[in-house]
Amino acid sequence: xxxxxxxxxxxxxxxxxxxxxxxxxxxxxxxxxxxxxxxxxxxxxxxxxxxxxxxxxxxxxxxxxxxxxxxxxxxxxxxxxxxxxxxxxxxxxxxxxxxxxxxxxxxxxxxxxxxxxxxxxxxxxxxxxxxxxxxxxxxxxxxxxxxxxxxxxxxxxxxxxxxxxxxxxxxxxxxxxxxxxxxxxxxxxxxxxxxxxxxxxxxxxxxxxxxxxxxxxxxxxxxxxxxxxxxxxxxxxxxxxxxxxxxxxxxxxxxxxxxxxxxxxxxxxxxxxxxxxxxxxxxxxxxxxxxxxxxxxxxxxxxxxxxxxxxxxxxxxxxxxxxxxxxxxxxxxxxxxxxxxxxxxxxxxxxxxxxxxxxxxxxxxxxxxxxxxxxxxxxxxxxxxxxxxxxxxxxxxxxxxxxxxxxxxxxxxxxxxxxxxxxxxxxxxxxxxxxxxxxxxxxxxxxxxxxxxxxxxxxxxxxxxxxxxxxxxxxxxxxxxxxxxxxxxxxxxxxxxxxxxxxxxxxxxxxxxxxxxxxxxxxxxxxxxxxxxxxxxxxxxxxxxxxxxxxxxxxxxxxxxxxxxxxxxxxxxxxxxxxxxxxxxxxxxxxxxxxxxxxxxxxxxxxx
Length: 608
What we know:
By secondary structure, the protein is an alpha/beta fold.
């Protein structure tokens, strides 16, 4: 019997700070700092996330065997300085803004973290893409697999591939800055009026409304894409290596004008640009995947990095059959770097074995965050005088919730450990009936307060998924887009020339609330082994309606992180058009809640 070895992994100081604790190579806890501070994409030192991880493991910082950081600051600093020198004198303003924070803070990360933590444990700096690769392979259900990572940039690397074998992984080839698929996509995100590092999924959602009429122009002018998926960008069109914006005046002239003003009306140019860059990114990822398959000889693929959150490209790789099986890290962005760094330290430095059987997913549904007991929730509700119903019989509660959903009600679902990563997967979710043709509009306008074109994802019983979608395998992390089966589709009358709103509101299938304009959906399969309670709810809904599919969207309003604590769930419930709220085995109904005059007025405005 050996002593257990614990590693704290940290990602911080850029965006999406997070912490993860690993014991003997197994994930104990992981969470993003934003969920505690309520500041979306919080980049600061993840003190509260670290505190949670230590508490979940039942240890103090002094008992850690290693602390691992998700990238190498000195190499990143080298890249920044070399890039500024290469493009000088352009970028002087950006350089002068960046240097003080690097010289005063970012180069001294180990000293800063040790001071905050109070530990003298060994400190490891893992490579950025090494962290991504580790987060992809080590929790995956494969003993051996190829690995593909792609994002904006780490130190110098923007994408890489390698091979994992049991408790070891090795990266083989890389693409280097400034040639970056992630930054190309972010440049179009910026140009279409969305926020870089958070609006990329909006661009992906907008793409099906357009035509790829700029795709050839991108490939002719902006990008030299090679058969193996590697490429070079024409840097005359971009300013991100040295400037304060992503694109140059030459880029703007090429595409017919300045960037779209944020929140202004979307035009056909915007939808066509989104569609075009999406097509190009899919093609690049597909070529890279084929190259990795040919070079590695592996039949399975693991993916991570921000580009791996592009569920449309993932679905294409899957459908084209490049690999027999694909596993994608649900926290693929920088937050997942904390997990990857911890796993690099656990397996490569501390020698933790990786002895799981083939097929076992160690990510455990990504339910790795805090949970709250029913007794604690009841104590809080009683102390605040909040009307509620404690339904301690599981079947009775699930039957009641299924009935509410079948009646067209929108339900906040707060159950079990919070998800790690950007997706709500049935722990901090807002649920609704996918069959309701008006539900997408209701959710976007009265619950999420966001753009009307934004699609919603279906949560589907694993055993029923092939009945609705052209997909028949596990997709538990909502990271694969699949087409609806032809028999589920409805004939439509609108065309790409019709106004965006008319196309959004037209039912396209028997599951209109989750069917995108191109008859696709970002599918989550729900199985009894990973989330038994959510699976039971879907079964109860199927018994009530004959349909095992629900809308599953994240439990938050626009601009806010996903809820973490019951109080945040209640605030969101009260501040939106939700009809009911489940806090573990407690049911709250909107109609029974006390509403003061000010809230009453706001509430009336929402409903109107």
